Amino acid sequence: MQITFFDEAKEILERLESYNHKAYFVGGCVRDMILGRNIGDVDIATSASPESVQEIFDNVIPVGLQHGTVIVRHNRQSYEVTTFRTDGEYSDQRHPDSVTFIQSIDEDLQRRDFTINALAMDRDGTIIDLFQGKNDIAKKVIRTVGNGFERFQEDPLRIIRALRFSSQLGFSISDDTLDNMKLVKQEVETIAVERIKQEVEKFFAGKHVQRGIDYLKETQLDYHLPVFRHYHHLIHKLPDRLTPVPSFGAVTALFHYLKPEITIQYWSSQWKCSNREKRAANDLIRALHQFNHSGMNSWLVYCLPAACYPSFVILINLLMDKHAVLNDIMKWESILPIHSRQELVIDGNDVKQLFPDRSSGPWIKDVLNAVEFAVVTGKVNNNKKDLKEWIKWNPTAIN
Ligand code: ATP
Ligand code: MG
């Protein structure tokens, strides 16, 4: 599987080389290949200028030209192709003030954050390893390339990235790197929330998230993160053995559940959540409360969007004494009489016709809500005749 992945990407290296440029696989994909992990994305570094890359390939998207990055589309896959570069000063601790494109991979590897990420591989599979990255992978250690204090000051996001990689890979952080993380940690407050959030999302989804949490507690980096900086004990409210929480919506729901005083609205504005994440958090919280109240049932499953099922199961297992598996929800789902309001065989007009003397108003929606609930919970069949009967005989529904 991975072989094919690289084989296809290799064609890009070959193409660049045929124009007399140098080109390598770099960063996470090389690390993950050595580890036998699934490879998320294949990043390529090249001596070709961004303009040349755009000329050489037909299908390119210039996503970050100022940093030398273009996306090359090849066989329906996207590859980030970045020109070898060195970073200038970081006066704003966010972006280098300038980048300089260079001809050799060596200096490009030097600008990278950790030794395990500073590996390059040519198309024959030969690995360039200038900082003992392979050795650190074997020892499962995260260590900065060069002086940690300086590297974290240049870009404090790397402090969070160290935690993120320990959570994803289960690696330890070298003593020296950890000391420097502690020294520079307050600088994290200067970074744009959007950048922090990307890393924190991956952190909570990491397979070894408990490892990451242990480091988070040890470094007290949470004192410098949105929301957590105002709630110093929040992190200690987490269950003892945290399991991966797959999405930021679920992370939002988790912390709101643990500390209801932190509203979803407040959390979301501090973390700049998308509407989709907010919606997922609200859906999950509602389902958790329903589950607490009356266990798994058809109405709960009906109201919860299918995309939230896996997170819901994880949250139940983390937060409640009861145990749940995805199969429980799938069973309920498979016997639902309808899956959305649209599948009801009556609509507002049918309801109105049943009560010709009443003028339109919000009562119609109330009736439909009551009908929807009755159908989903099996009190009435979803056919016109039965539904009309049911509405007539259930006056509460029309008040
Ligand atoms: P993932 O599997 O999550 O994609 P990754 O290692 O590929 O992990 P990315 O964020 O995609 O991580 O970054 C790609 C590479 O770019 C890294 O492996 C690293 O070499 C370099 N890099 C990314 N962010 C930084 C940073 N803030 N400072 C230095 N180097 C970085
Ligand atoms: Mg990557």
Give a nutshell description of this structure.
The chain has 19 helices and eleven strands. The chain is an alpha+beta fold. Strands 3-4-5-2-1-8-9 form a seven-stranded mixed β-sheet. The chain has a two-stranded antiparallel sheet with strand order 6-7.
CATH superfamily of the largest domain: Beta Polymerase, domain 2
Task: Identify the CATH class of the largest domain.
Answer: Alpha Beta
The helix/strand class is alpha+beta
Name the assembly state.
Answer: single chain
Number of domains: 4
Strand content: 5-15%
**Within the largest sheet, what's the order of strands?**
3-4-5-2-1-8-9
The helix/strand order is HEHEHEEEEEHEEHEHHEHHHHHHHHHHHH
In CATH, the topology of the largest domain is named Beta Polymerase, domain 2
So, CATH architecture of the largest domain? Answer: 2-Layer Sandwich
What is the CA-CA span between the terminal residues?
A: 61 Å
| Rounded radius of gyration (Å) | 27 Å
Bound molecules: adenosine-5'-triphosphate, magnesium ion
State the shape: elongated
